[in-house]
Amino acid sequence: MVTIKQTQLIEWLKNITLVIRENKDILTALDSEIGDADHGFNMERGFNKVSEKIDELSRSQDIAMLMKNTGMTLISSIGGASGPLYGTFFMQAGAVLGDKTEITLTDLKNSIENGVKGVKDRGRASVGDKTMIDVLEPAVQSLSESVGENLSLEQALSNMVDVAKNGMKSTIDMIAKKGRASYLGERSIGHQDAGATSSYLILKALKETIN
Ligand code: ADP
Ligand code: MG
Ligand code: MG
């Protein structure tokens, strides 16, 4: 059985930092259209902190602690709506993993599912509200289907990212119902959501780290 090792998840965190830095201006530009132009800055600040603390994070005894410590780092360093939401995602993603130091596709699905549940409990957004949930929820759905169909880890990650990309693009035509963009009502139509975009980048970084 192919598994994901704790060291690979540490590589994922490093790769998220790189991809966020590369896309900082894009994330900020998207947030400037229907928000307050700080999403790139917020995400970079949070993941710079993760990257500064990566040696300490790497000493986490298991994947649950690694994810929890990452989430706490994000909560304490990202301002704005996205900090507590991504922080909750990582903390809750860890919460279902017990003391594992490597995980199967099923574990990964359970982990991301619980992370997304945490984001939904906290932010109360549903699919269609033009937020990161439009990427995260279909990604969980895709992972569940892949588990059900016994797909390989590689294929499952690839399918998840395809679905996440569609979710990201689907936000363009939506009216924002949550977050700052919701103040614009119909004027939010025609713009891709910044948080959906960062969620896509985070999931894509996972696929590229593992596959
Ligand atoms: P802020 O809006 O406080 O400036 P950011 O710009 O960092 O924070 O993040 C904005 C992103 O957060 C949005 O693009 C959206 O995807 C996400 N978001 C905002 N509110 C919610 C919510 N209630 N649930 C899920 N995601 C949300
Ligand atoms: Mg913002
Ligand atoms: Mg802000």
UniProtKB/TrEMBL annotation:
Coiled-coil blocks: none
Keyword Kinase: yes
Domain of life of the source: Bacteria
DhaL domain residues: 7-208
PANTHER family in alphabetical order: TRIOKINASE/FMN CYCLASE (PTHR28629), TRIOKINASE_FMN CYCLASE (PTHR28629:SF4)
InterPro entries on file: DhaK_L_YcgS (IPR012737), DhaL_dom (IPR004007), DhaL_dom_sf (IPR036117), Dihydroxyacetone_Kinase (IPR050861)
Gene3D superfamilies: 1.25.40.340
NCBIfam families referenced in this protein's UniProt entry, alphabetically: dha_L_ycgS
Any one GO molecular function term: glycerone kinase activity
GO term, biological process aspect, one: glycerol catabolic process
Native species: Roseivirga ehrenbergii (strain DSM 102268 / JCM 13514 / KCTC 12282 / NCIMB 14502 / KMM 6017)
Stated name of the protein: Dihydroxyacetone kinase
PROSITE patterns: DHAL
Protein keywords: Kinase, Transferase
Cellular component annotations (GO), alphabetically ordered: cytosol
